[in-house]
Amino acid sequence: xxxxxxxxxxxxxxxxxxxxxxxxxxxxxxxxxxxxxxxxxxxxxxxxxxxxxxxxxxxxxxxxxxxxxxxxxxxxxxxxxxxxxxxxxxxxxxxxxxxxxxxxxxxxxxxxxxxxxxxxxxxxxxxxxxxxxxxxxxxxxxxxxxxxxxxxxxxxxxxxxxxxxxxxxxxxxxxxxxxxxxxxxxxxxxxxxxxxxxxxxxxxxxxxxxxxxxxxxxxxxxxxx
Length: 225
Ligand code: SAH
Known about the structure:
This protein starts with a helix and ends with a helix. It has helices spanning about 5-10, 10-25, 30-40, 70-80, 95-105, 115-130, 165-170, 220-225; strands at about 60, 65, 85-90, 110-115, 135-140, 150-155, 170-180, 185-195, 200-210. Helix 2 (about 10-25) packs antiparallel against helix 3 (about 30-40) and helix 2 (about 10-25) packs across helix 4 (about 70-80). The strands form two sheets. A seven-stranded mixed beta sheet has the order 5-4-3-6-7-8-9. It has a two-stranded antiparallel ribbon with strand order 1-2. The chain has a single domain (about 5-225), classed as 3-Layer(aba) Sandwich (Rossmann fold). By secondary structure, it is α/β, with parallel strands linked by helices. The structure holds S-adenosyl-L-homocysteine. S-adenosyl-L-homocysteine binds near residues 68, 92, 142, 157 and 218. S-adenosyl-L-homocysteine (SAH) binds next to strand 2, helix 5 and strand 4.
């Protein structure tokens, strides 16, 4: 199943409406808004979810996981602004939709997912979409992906009780990371920036809710089940 041009035409109107909603939520950057026009979200979602693919809402993708809300992802992209020559690390590939958006902005995207089936599906969707600059790995993202470090941008799409130290280590000079930090039911979006040896941390948004980051430097699986 590849992005079929005819099939896709059915969704164009919905996609425009989604972009209007993202704009209404304060993301004005045209370059970012256009990305949401270029990436067909439904192709990354289970077919049963296609009727809801262009709602500005989190959508279930199986395995107890959800694709994040598009306006929140747009906000992520606006805050992080990966550049054309930069390397990005994403933790929590999920369905691969944000991965696709990132791949259109950055030079290379490395994405780690703990659920093998999700990673496999994301790979298929990304290949069908035609991106060539994305590497996926199945594993625990709380330890990062040392082989390709350092990264200019790190995007964490699951919530953590604290900032995993390995991710800070793997941030490049001038690097920035967004991660939801807090309790299991509600978190704050934290922006971590590194300049030389100095690391700063600030809250950029309160009261966000993400699925838990499960791993060595986050929550244990048992606590969640
Ligand atoms: N951006 C994705 C978000 C998916 S939800 C999307 O829009 O589809 C977050 C994902 O993080 C889930 O797929 C979950 O399985 C994954 N995850 C949770 N803990 C992880 C960990 N330690 N390492 C890698 N992925 C993890």
